[in-house]
Design brief:
The chain has 158 residues and is α+β, with helices and mostly antiparallel strands. Helix content is 54%, strand content 17%. The chain has one domain. It has helices spanning 6-25, 32-77, 82-87, 94-107, and strands spanning 111-117, 120-129, 142-151. Strand 1 (111-117) and strand 2 (120-129) form a beta hairpin. The termini are far apart. InterPro entries: Tad_N. This is Putative Flp pilus-assembly TadG-like N-terminal domain-containing protein. Pfam families: Tad (PF13400). Residues 31-78 form the Putative Flp pilus-assembly TadG-like N-terminal domain.
Length: 158
C-alpha cells in the first residue's frame, strides 16, 4: 500500500533535481566582472599614455621650434650693414640677415619664414610633426608654428 503524499514527494525531488541540474549546466559567470575591469583599465591606461606621452612630445616640439626661431632671429639680427657699423646705428643688412636666419633655421631642422622690420628680425619656425603616442588615439600629423624675434644692437649700450 502506498502512503499518502509519497507521490508528491517523489515529484518534488524530481523537480528539484532538474532545477539543480539546470543551474549546473548554466554558464559559470564567476570572474566576468574581473575580466571587464581588466579590459576597461587597460583601455584607460593606453588612452592616458597616449595623452601624457603625446602631449609631452608636442610640448617638446613647440619648445624646440621656439628656440630655433629665436636663435635664427638672433643670428639674423647680428648681420648689421656696413654703414650701420661705421655710424653706430642699428640698421640690419636685410639680405644677409634673411640668408643667415634661414640657414640657422634649416640647420635646426625647421622650415619657416624670415622678415626684417627696421632693426628687428622676426623668424617663424614651422613644420609638421607626428607624435608617436598620439597615434594610439588616432591623432595624426600636427602643424607647429613658433615665432622668435631679435633686435640688432650695434653698441654695448644698445
Amino acid at each position: 500500500m502506498k502512503r499518502a503524499g509519497h507521490g508528491v514527494r517523489v515529484r518534488l525531488r524530481t523537480v528539484l533535481r532538474r532545477t539543480a541540474h539546470r543551474r549546473e549546466c548554466r554558464r559559470d559567470e564567476r570572474g566576468a566582472a574581473a575580466a571587464w575591469t581588466l579590459i576597461l583599465a587597460s583601455t584607460a591606461f593606453v588612452a592616458l599614455l597616449g595623452l601624457v606621452g603625446g602631449g609631452g612630445e608636442l610640448i617638446n616640439d613647440k619648445v624646440e621650434a621656439k628656440r630655433a626661431a629665436e636663435q635664427a632671429a638672433r643670428a639674423g639680427a647680428d648681420e648689421l650693414s656696413a654703414s650701420a657699423v661705421r655710424s653706430g646705428s642699428d640698421k640690419v643688412d636685410v639680405g644677409a640677415a634673411i640668408a643667415r636666419a634661414k640657414t640657422v633655421l634649416r640647420q635646426s631642422g625647421w622650415s619657416g619664414t624670415v622678415r626684417v622690420n627696421g632693426s628687428e628680425v622676426i623668424v617663424t619656425a614651422t613644420d609638421t610633426r607626428e607624435p608617436q603616442f598620439l597615434r594610439l588615439l588616432g591623432v595624426g600629423a600636427v602643424q607647429i608654428h613658433e615665432t622668435g624675434s631679435a633686435d640688432a644692437i650695434s653698441t654695448p649700450s644698445g
